[in-house]
Automatic annotation (TrEMBL):
<dbReference type="InterPro" id="IPR008254">
    <property type="entry name" value="Flavodoxin/NO_synth"/>
</dbReference>
<feature type="domain" description="Flavodoxin-like">
    <location>
        <begin position="17"/>
        <end position="160"/>
    </location>
</feature>
<dbReference type="GO" id="GO:0003958">
    <property type="term" value="F:NADPH-hemoprotein reductase activity"/>
</dbReference>
<dbReference type="InterPro" id="IPR001433">
    <property type="entry name" value="OxRdtase_FAD/NAD-bd"/>
</dbReference>
<protein>
    <recommendedName>
        <fullName>Flavodoxin-like domain-containing protein</fullName>
    </recommendedName>
</protein>
<dbReference type="GO" id="GO:0010181">
    <property type="term" value="F:FMN binding"/>
</dbReference>
<dbReference type="Pfam" id="PF00175">
    <property type="entry name" value="NAD_binding_1"/>
</dbReference>
<dbReference type="GO" id="GO:0050660">
    <property type="term" value="F:flavin adenine dinucleotide binding"/>
</dbReference>
<dbReference type="InterPro" id="IPR003097">
    <property type="entry name" value="CysJ-like_FAD-binding"/>
</dbReference>
<dbReference type="GO" id="GO:0005829">
    <property type="term" value="C:cytosol"/>
</dbReference>
<dbReference type="Pfam" id="PF00258">
    <property type="entry name" value="Flavodoxin_1"/>
</dbReference>
<dbReference type="Pfam" id="PF00667">
    <property type="entry name" value="FAD_binding_1"/>
</dbReference>
<keyword id="KW-0285">Flavoprotein</keyword>
C-alpha cells in the first residue's frame, strides 16, 4: 500500500475528501455529515462545506470532491447552491478547467416530482463536460416513502467504499493534519453565548434567522382531534419584508418533558454549560447549557439513524442484542430497519429508554444527532394587506398514534406573546406577469394557505381603489376541497370575499359528506381549456396526489381538445409550467 509504519505523531490516511452539500430541509446536510463519519472510518480526512460557502479557486484545486445536492421545482437547485450553480454553468468556464478533479455525486430528490434528481443530473453532466472525472456512478436518494437513507446506504455499499479504498491507498502523514473534526467538549462556568462566531453554515443560518412574536394563535377546525387540527398563527415582526405567498421556515424546539426524560436517563445536569473544542467550524453557538442545546439544536426525535444504531450497539452488553442492532444498521438489514424503525417512527430517545442505555455521553450525542431543521410553511397572507404580519396555517402531523411531529408538538405549546425564530424565502407561487389573466385557485386542506394570500392581495387593491395596480385583474375563482363542513377553513372569510366580488366564484367539495366529492370533480375540461386559452393561470396547493389528479385532467383536456397524443401531453403540461401558467406547491 506504500505506507510505512507510523510513529505516535504520524497517522495513516488516504487523504483529504471535500464534501459539499446544498440543502433546504436538511436531508443533504445530514447525509453529508454521515458520509464524513463513514469516510473517516476509512481513514480519509473529510471536510464538509455548504455550497453557499464554496470558493472557486479552492474548489478547482481540490482533488476529490463529493456533492450531496437536492432538487426543487423544475430541476432547480436549492437557494444555498444558486451562486455555485451560476458560476458552474457560466459560459466563462473553460473546457478542462476541472481536469485533475475526481468527483462523486449523491443526488437527493423525490420520485413524487416530475424532474427527479434533475439538479444532480445536471451537475454530473456539467462536471464531466468541464473535465472532472466521475469515479462512481451517481447515487439517487428518493424521499418518496422515506427511502433516501436506504438508497444512500446502497450507494455507499455497492460502489463507493470499494472505489475509494482501491483508488486512494493509505499513506502516513503528520497527526496534526488528521485532527480535523472530532468534537470534544469542555465544561465551563462561562455564561451562554448564543451569538458566538465561527459557526458552520447551518448554525449561522439559525443565528441569522429572525424572531417573530405571536400575535394570535387559534384552531381553525371546528371539531379538531389529535392529528386532525390546523392552527392559524399570526406572526409579527416590525421590520419584516416579505412577498405574498412566500415561504417561512420556522425552527421548532424539543419539549421540556422529552429533554427532562433524556437528561434523567443519561444523568445529565441540564443546567451545566459547555464549550466545544474543534478545529472545524462550530456546529452550534457556545458556551451553551445542555438544556439550550437539547431544546434548540439537537434533533433526537427524528427517525433513528443507522449511525445512531451503531453507536447504541456499542453500549449494550448483551451480545445478541448488539448483533441485532448492527444488523439493522447494515445494508443487509435494510428491510428490517424499515419495518422495525421507519414504519413505527422510532427515535433515539425511545431506544435509549428501551435498551436502558446509560453511557451515551454528550459528546457522542453531539456527534450522532443532526441539528434541528426548520419546517417550511407557505405564507397565508398578503404583504400588501399585512406588511408586518405573517399568517400561517399549520396542519398537525401525527407520526404514530401517540406522537406528533416535532413542529406539530412545538406549536401546541405556543401562546400569544411567545417568540419564535425563522426566516423567509421565495416560494414557487409568483404573481402573474399578465395582470389581466384570469386565475383559478385549487387547493385542499391547509393548501388553502397561499391561495388565501393571493385572494388577500386582490382584495387589498379592490378595497383601496387601486385596482389598476392589482396583479390579479382578471377573474379569480377558488375551488377548495376538504373532508367536511367543519373543516372548511376560513369559511366566513371566503364567503365574504365572494360577496364583495374579490372572488368571482367559490366552490367547495367535501370528500366525507354524502355524496362525497373531490375537488378535481369540480373542474370541467372545457372550462380548463377556455381558461388556458385566455392565458389563465392555475395555482395548485396541497398533496402530491392532488397534483397528479389535476395533471390527468389537463392531459385529458389536451387529448380531447387538441388531439394530442397521450405521450406528448407531459410536454404540453411542462410548457404551461415553464410559462408560469401552472404554479404548484405540494408538501404532502
Ligand atoms: C415548501 C413547503 C411548504 C409547506 N407549507 C405548509 C403549510 O403551509 N402548512 C402545513 O401544515 N404544512 C406545510 N408544509 C409541511 C411542514 O413543513 C411540515 O413538514 C409538517 O407540518 C410536519 O412537520 P412536523 O415537524 O410536525 O413533523 P416532522 O417531525 O417533521 O415529521 C414529519 C416527517 O418526518 C418523518 N419523521 C419524523 N420523525 C420520525 C421518526 N421518529 N421516525 C420516522 N419518521 C419520522 C415523518 O415520517 C415525516 O416524513 C410545507 C412543507 C414545505 C416543504
Ligand atoms: C416544494 C418541494 C419541491 C420539490 N421538487 C422536487 C423536484 O422537482 N424534483 C425532485 O427530484 N425532488 C423534489 N423535491 C424533493 C426533495 O428534493 C427531497 O425531499 C430532498 O430529500 C430534499 O433534500 P434537502 O432536505 O437536502 O433539501 C421537492 C420537495 C419539495 C418540498
Amino acid at each position: 500500500m506504500g505506507c510505512g509504519t507510523s510513529s505516535a505523531s504520524q497517522l495513516e490516511t488516504r487523504g483529504l475528501i471535500y464534501i459539499y452539500y446544498g440543502t433546504t430541509t436538511g436531508n443533504s446536510s445530514r447525509l453529508a455529515f454521515q458520509f464524513a463519519s463513514e469516510v473517516r472510518n476509512l481513514k480519509f480526512i473529510p471536510k464538509i462545506i455548504n455550497l453557499s460557502e464554496y470558493n472557486p479557486k479552492e474548489l478547482l484545486s481540490q482533488k476529490l470532491n463529493v456533492f450531496f445536492v437536492s432538487t426543487y421545482g423544475m430541476g432547480s437547485c436549492t437557494a444555498d447552491t444558486e451562486n455555485f450553480d451560476q458560476w458552474l454553468f457560466s459560459e466563462e468556464r473553460n473546457k478542462n478547467e476541472f481536469q485533475g478533479m475526481n468527483y462523486m455525486i449523491f443526488a437527493l430528490g423525490s420520485t413524487n416530482h416530475e424532474h427527479y434528481c434533475e439538479f444532480g443530473i445536471r451537475l454530473d453532466k456539467r462536471l464531466e463536460q468541464l473535465g472532472a472525472k466521475r469515479i462512481c456512478n451517481m447515487g439517487k436518494g428518493d424521499a418518496a416513502n422515506d427511502q433516501t437513507e436506504n438508497d444512500y446506504q446502497q450507494w455507499i455499499h455497492n460502489e463507493v467504499q470499494q472505489t475509494l479504498q482501491l483508488q486512494y491507498p493509505l499513506y502516513t502523514c503528520e497527526q496534526g493534519q488528521l485532527d480535523f473534526s472530532i468534537i470534544k467538549i469542555k465544561i465551563t462556568k462561562e455564561p451562554e453565548n448564543l451569538l458566538s462566531d465561527n459557526l458552520d453554515f447551518m448554525a449561522q443560518k439559525y443565528i441569522n434567522s429572525i424572531t417573530f412574536s405571536i400575535n394570535e394563535i387559534k384552531e381553525l377546525k371546528l371539531q379538531p382531534s389529535r392529528g386532525n387540527s390546523t392552527l392559524f398563527l399570526d406572526l409579527f415582526n416590525q421590520n419584516i419584508k416579505y412577498k405574498t405567498a412566500y415561504n417561512i421556515a420556522i425552527y421548532p424546539q424539543n419539549s421540556d418533558s422529552d429533554i427532562d426524560e433524556l437528561c434523567n436517563l443519561l444523568k445529565f445536569d441540564k443546567n451545566m454549560r459547555f464549550k466545544i473544542i474543534t478545529n472545524q467550524k462550530q456546529p452550534f453557538p457556545n458556551p451553551i447549557s445542555i438544556y439550550t442545546y437539547l431544546k434548540k439544536f439537537c434533533d433526537f426525535s427524528g427517525l433513528v439513524s443507522k449511525k445512531q444504531l451503531i453507536e447504541l450497539s456499542n453500549m449494550i452488553n448483551q451480545k445478541e442484542l448488539q448483533d441485532e442492532l448492527l444488523h439493522l444498521a447494515s445494508f443487509e438489514g435494510r428491510d428490517q430497519y424499515q419495518n422495525r424503525f421507519q414504519n413505527s417512527k422510532e427515535n433515539l430517545l425511545n431506544l435509549i429508554k428501551k435498551y436502558q442505555i446509560k453511557t451515551l455521553t454528550l459528546e457522542k450525542i453531539i456527534e450522532i444527532c443532526p441539528q434541528i431543521q426548520p419546517r417550511y410553511f407557505t405564507i397565508a397572507s398578503s404583504n400588501q394587506k399585512h406588511p408586518q404580519n405573517i399568517h400561517i396555517m399549520a396542519s398537525q402531523f401525527i407520526l404514530n398514534h401517540e406522537r406528533l411531529g416535532l413542529s406539530s408538538s412545538y406549536f401546541r405549546t405556543l401562546k400569544k406573546g411567545d417568540i419564535i425564530r425563522g426566516y423567509i424565502q421565495p416560494s414557487k407561487f409568483i404573481l402573474p406577469k399578465n395582470s389581466k389573466a384570469p386565475t383559478l385557485l385549487i387547493g385542499i386542506g391547509a393548501g388553502l394557505a397561499p391561495l388565501r394570500a393571493l385572494i388577500q392581495e386582490r382584495d387589498y387593491y379592490l378595497e383601496n381603489n387601486q385596482f389598476e395596480k392589482c396583479p390579479f385583474q382578471g377573474e379569480m375563482k377558488l375551488y377548495y376541497g376538504c373532508k367536511t363542513e367543519a373543516e372548511f377553513l376560513f369559511k366566513d372569510e371566503l364567503k365574504e370575499y365572494l360577496n364583495s366580488g374579490t372572488l368571482s366564484e367559490l366552490q367547495v367539495a367535501f370528500s366525507r359528506k354524502d355524496p362525497k366529492q373531490y375537488v378535481t370533480e369540480l373542474i370541467a375540461i372545457d372550462q380548463l381549456y377556455q381558461h388556458f386559452q385566455m392565458d389563465g393561470i392555475l395555482y395548485i396547493c396541497g398533496s402530491i396526489e392532488l397534483g397528479r389528479d389535476i395533471q390527468v385532467k389537463i392531459a385529458d383536456m389536451f387529448e380531447y381538445f387538441e388531439n394530442t397524443d397521450p405521450y406528448l401531453t407531459d410536454q404540453k403540461i411542462r410548457e404551461l409550467e415553464e410559462n408560469s401558467q401552472i404554479l404548484t406547491e405540494y408538501w404532502g
